[in-house]
TrEMBL record:
Signal peptide: none annotated. Transmembrane segments: none annotated. The lineage of its organism: Bacteria, Pseudomonadati, Planctomycetota, Planctomycetia, Pirellulales. This is Planctomycete cytochrome C. Residues 293-382 form the Carbohydrate binding module xylan-binding domain.
Length: 820
């Protein structure tokens, strides 16, 4: 196989891509071929990673009037009146005493934003305030009680003013930073493109995470090391995909002349001295059919009127050589030999001896053999046999030069199709032509057709159009409408959303026909994609990151305390949760079943670990949980394990996990210098100790939200097994939210999340899916799209496929806006 980097000018040209990839402010143009510098592109690189954040899209308020987007008026005066006449009096009554203009507790000053305009600019901290209001943690319990009507109206006003956006008049669809394929997407794309399962996990640097996902454009940078790895990977991948004629074998042997057959008839010290006619023989076991060169170092004592003559013979072919030299010199002959044993004879032909007249001196012609070596090179056809070709080779090189196709026409057909599939859009004539010329340059240098295709395909695999999901920059039209991305770009967004890989031929054909915005055809295709085996990539990527299952492999329960836990159980827990998510999606169940399902998927080992009888065999199957303490994600061993400590449960971690991942209400970071629970002077049961910990005013606000949620799961230990006691203490699994909502145990928590806060959970899931699929965090202007998805899917109980199609049909997914 030829290497891309050994091609002289071609190497320099391709490697010149690297600096352009890395320049922060370089502009990129998607119309260039693989070997073009990225300096010509027109999409602006991010100049830095944004602060990671989650939950900036407004959480769903449990008021009927908030189901759809509140169309904020464009009249600034009206917004100012709304702030001055309605919100400001509520703020003065309940907030300004603690969060005044200059002395705001927790660093939060609400009074400083004394107008509607300032409130919009301070949107981020107003969203934090709104979340605290929704949970009931603000105003604090020792402050004036806030009635429900005032609380709901304050939430509504903050939402309307901080996110004042007209959902009718072309809201911004947002823009995604030029996105590099992450490691998972790269592996899947390579497999679908070439058939080679190349794992970059060991060699590629890890992908950074933003907003909880590794699909975020802002953090998927391209360090120099990764560019080097891409070059190595491209070479390895095409070498596995395309067969080439193996390089010829070589052979070498060196024999001391004194050890040749017949050498004992002559004199010798270190060299063989043949002082009379005769023959010595080298016996050679030729390992292959090929050309064998015999190299001899020889000399002669000259006498008479002719130089020393020798004959070298093998297999009926002989060479006669004159040796006029008296000093050692090198002579070579070459034989074509088959794979068998051969004798190579070296004969001295013209011995001469005579006395000089009138002298005691003698004339003596002798031959000296100082060294003998044989070097063999295999001869083989440059044609590959069809029977020996791997399936990937046949699929990629579907045309080869011959009687009906020239090198150029065959290369154009092969490379145009390969580049079009790799770039996820038709390769331009210019791009295809450059690849063909590149391949021809390699071919003209003596490479075979297959080797030329290898090198050209390596160029494709290090092109920005393969490594990045490039979308043509667009601007709003004269009416301010945000433009749609083209159908090939839409196909790419869909396939990487649902398959973490390139579009298949059917999706590309739909894009070519302009069918991806036909609602019925799109729904049919998306449904087929969800039922395709490749949808397991979406489950493994999205669900694992959303639910933090990737932390399961790092969880380290103390097996002295939890003796039933082992690696088999760990893996079974992971499979249970992913299979549960996958089956709900494929069966188009309401997404709320993730919370309140009365079934799961178990095998015998995990069922026995959970204490569930009558499950036999190691295959996972549907298991009813009716009349059981379990149900929904919250009682999966995987979730309970990743939210626990090695030796005990952690109500704080579990409560925070629920706020982060199911309600999209992440608590503020813990204040500095607050001791961990085990390190403080705390006594009593875990609940008693948590109460003492919560007595710290710096901790109280957040723990009032987290702890009740976590305590509801206390009947499940640190590895998810059910219990009624914690040591000597009876488990108290009751909880009360800051707004007074009470619940009991896991079943009560499921009721709270799956019924009372159902829409808030669904909105959280929609936002997580949008973040994952778009490759950026959701912004305030995405509220219009999220509200529409909520509204349109509510009538059908928020079913999985409806939610996914709603995201795909949304403006942020279909259009390209701008960054604010």
């Amino acid at each position: 196989m030829l290497r891309l980097r050994t091609l002289g000018p071609g190497l320099v040209h391709l490697r010149s891509l690297k600096p352009a990839y890395l320049r922060d402010s370089t502009e990129h143009s998607p119309g260039r071929a693989a070997a073009e510098s990225l300096a010509a592109m027109s999409t602006v690189w991010p100049t830095g990673t944004r602060a990671l954040r989650c939950g900036r899209v407004i959480l769903f308020v449990l008021l009927a009037s908030m189901i759809t987007c509140v169309p904020a008026t464009a009249d600034d005066a009206a917004l100012q009146r709304l702030f001055r006449n309605e919100l400001a009096p509520l703020l003065r009554t309940y907030c300004y005493d603690c969060h005044g203009e200059s002395d705001g507790e927790g660093g939060l000053s609400l009074a400083a934003d004394d107008s509607a305009d300032k409130l919009v600019k301070g949107r981020q901290h107003w969203m934090r305030a709104k979340a605290q209001l929704q949970l009931g943690s603000m105003p604090p319990a020792d402050y004036e009680t806030m009635d429900t009507v005032s609380r709901d109206r304050m939430v509504e006003l903050i939402d309307q003013l901080a996110n004042s956006i007209n959902c009718v008049q072309n809201p911004n669809a947002g823009k995604v930073t030029l996105r590099r394929l992450n490691r998972t997407e790269y592996r899947n794309t390579i497999r679908d493109l070439t058939g080679v399962d190349y794992s970059p996990a060991k060699d590629f640097p890890g992908d950074d995470v933003g907003y909880g996902f590794d699909t975020i454009g802002d953090v998927l940078s391209l360090p120099p090391l990764l560019m080097e790895k891409y070059l190595d990977a491209a070479e390895d991948i095409v070498g596995q995909a395309i067969d080439t004629v193996p390089p010829p074998q070589s052979f070498a042997i060196s024999v001391q002349p004194l050890k040749l057959k017949g050498a004992d008839q002559f004199d010798g010290n270190r060299s063989l001295a043949m002082n009379h006619n005769g023959t010595v023989t080298l016996s050679l076991e030729a390992p292959f059919y090929g050309d064998y060169t015999v190299t001899m170092v020889v000399s002669g004592d000259q006498a008479g009127d002719a130089p020393v003559q020798i004959r070298v013979a093998s297999g009926g072919k002989a060479f006669t050589l004159s040796i006029p030299e008296s000093d050692p010199t090198e002579k070579t002959v070459t034989f074509r030999l088959g794979k068998k044993k051969h004798d190579i004879d070296v004969s001295f032909l013209n011995d001469f001896y005579a006395s000089k007249p009138y002298s005691r001196e003698k004339e003596d012609r002798n031959f000296f053999l100082h060294n003998i070596e044989v070097h063999g090179t295999e001869r083989r056809s440059k044609q590959l046999l069809d029977a020996d070709l791997n399936p990937n080779h046949r699929r990629l090189l579907f045309v080869t030069p011959g009687k009906t196709a020239s090198f150029e026409s065959a290369a154009a057909a092969v490379l145009s199709r390969f580049a079009s599939r790799a770039y996820r859009r038709p390769a331009s004539k210019q791009e295809a032509s450059r690849l063909v010329q590149f391949a021809k340059q390699v071919h003209d240098g003596g490479a075979t057709f297959e080797e030329s295709m290898q090198v050209a395909m390596q160029a494709v695999l290090v092109s920005p159009h393969f490594l990045f999901r490039v979308e043509k920059p667009r601007t709003p039209d004269a009416q301010g409408r945000m433009p749609n991305i083209n159908e090939y770009e839409l196909a790419t967004r869909i396939s990487y959303f649902l398959w973490s890989s390139m579009p298949d031929d059917e999706l590309l054909l739909m894009a070519h026909r302009g069918e991806l915005r036909d609602q019925s055809k799109l729904r049919e295709k998306v449904t087929r994609m969800i039922h395709d085996r490749r949808s397991s990539r979406f489950v493994g990527s999205f669900a694992s990151q959303w639910l933090q299952l990737r932390n399961l492999e790092r969880a380290d329960p103390d097996t002295q305390v939890y003796q039933g836990f082992n690696e088999t159980i760990r893996e079974s827990m992971r499979i249970e949760t992913l299979m549960f998510f996958s089956e709900l999606m494929k069966k188009n169940q309401p997404v709320t079943r993730l919370i309140d399902a009365d079934f799961t998927y178990l095998n015998e080992s995990l069922a026995e670990f959970y204490g569930i009888p009558n499950v036999q065999g190691e295959a996972f199957r549907l298991v009813s949980l009716k009349d059981s303490q379990r149900g929904g994600l919250l009682t999966h061993g995987s979730i309970l394990t990743v939210t626990s400590n090695p030796t005990r449960t952690s109500p704080v971690k579990r409560g925070k996990w629920i706020l982060d991942n199911l309600l999209n209400m992440p608590p503020a970071p813990a204040p500095p210098n607050v001791p961990e629970l085990d390190k403080g002077p705390l006594v009593g049961s875990l609940r008693d100790r948590m109460e003492q910990h919560r007595s710290n005013p710096a901790c109280a606000a957040c723990h009032k939200m987290m702890d009740p949620l976590g305590f509801a799961l206390e009947n499940f230990d640190a590895v998810g097994q059910f219990r009624t006691r914690d040591g000597q203490d009876e488990i108290d699994a009751s909880g009360e939210m800051p707004d007074g909502t009470q619940f009991q145990g896991a079943s009560g928590l499921r009721e709270l999340l799956g019924s009372q806060r159902k829409e808030q959970f669904v909105r959280c899931l929609v936002e997580k899916l949008m973040t994952y699929s778009l490759g950026r965090g959701t912004e305030y202007y995405d509220k219009c799209a999220i509200d529409r998805i909520m509204s349109e899917t509510q009538a059908n109980e928020f079913r999985f496929v409806d939610v996914i199609i709603g995201i795909i049909e949304s403006d942020p997914f279909q259009k390209q806006g701008f960054r604010e």
